[in-house]
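Bumping with the actual sequence this time:
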Amino acid sequence: MEQVLELSYALDTFYFLMAGALVMWMAAGFTMLEAGLVRSKNTTEILAKNVGLFSIASLTYMLVGYNIMYGEGLNSIIPGLSFLVGADNTTAEVLAGGDDAPYYSNMADFFFQLVFVATAMSIVSGAVAERMKLMSFFIFAVALTAFIYPVQGYWTWGGGFLDEIGFSDFAGSGIVHMAGAAAALAGVLVLGARKGKYGKDGEVRAIPGANMPLAALGTFILWLGWFGFNGGSQLQISTVEDANAVAMIFANTNLAAAGGVIGAMIISRILFGKVDLTMILNGALAGLVSITADPLSPSPFSAAIIGMIGGMIVVFAILMMDKKFKIDDPVGAISVHGVVGIWGLIAVTFNNADATILAQLIGIASIFAWVFTASLIVWLAIKAIMGVRVSEEDEYNGLDQSECGMEAYPEFSNKK
């Protein structure tokens, strides 16, 4: 019996770590996607931004964020405050057995949750691209990963009030994706649009990205990483029931992404008369965001439909953000992760009998209100203290030189 418990513990810990490694690989996906969708003169800066934010998230979540999210709270709304990650489980605790015995390493859980908070911050990166000061972005990354994200994470995954009312978000359509989009929206509103994006009469001017192969590569990397994102959220794989659940989650995750591509492809063909690559790339991500709130309950066919609807929604959302609201989001992150994140949370009620629309709506409103308001306050404070936007000259010349002192593609530079 002891050998069985130890083997089960080792297997679940190993699976959890490998799932976390897949999610960490999503950082490369966001980096490549954003590097492809910005102009060449801003590529080095976007690369530095993504490497930096992951490192910041790793340290701040270790220092305080993890304990805020999973520590002892003052009540179901206000989490507690403590520092550093605690000790791991002992052999005696594992071999005690029973419902309260740990079945994977605490450090594996910390690592898995860490890569989720980094994902949320990566969403912000693309939305504020091409005009934000790099150090201002990094300071905001500290606030989001150390405090803003963990507080709302505590409300559900930490056993807070949203968990108590039955709000359901299996792998984070709201807790990760909509939260990241809410923080991004606050930043974009404070920052303003890129120079030349909108004309005097309000017309929208397209600013094409520099490298579509990189954008496509980034999408496929994210698609792959999402199997860890959703599959790892099952937490275990050592029983027949859990193994079957993980297999269903993988299948549904893939089908939702494929459905999102088809949905976006259909709508872009109808609206533009052509298949827009950027729209179908965002359609894949929209399908993935759509199914993240519940990748286990739907049938494979239902998962594909949920993803397809998400892919259709994201095309209209991107156009509305751009044309009607004049919200300049170079990569469509607010639409993909925010608007479609809301759809994913609502779609939970179609297949999960335990989820109610009231609980889902309360969760949506609570997460968005907290993250948007807290983020807006932080963005405004950074703006008042050190500014958030580069000069017009630096924006024109590109952030690669002004923020990083080097170009990503120096051989293509017109400068002598």
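The tokens above came from a reply further down the thread. The radius of gyration is 21 Å.
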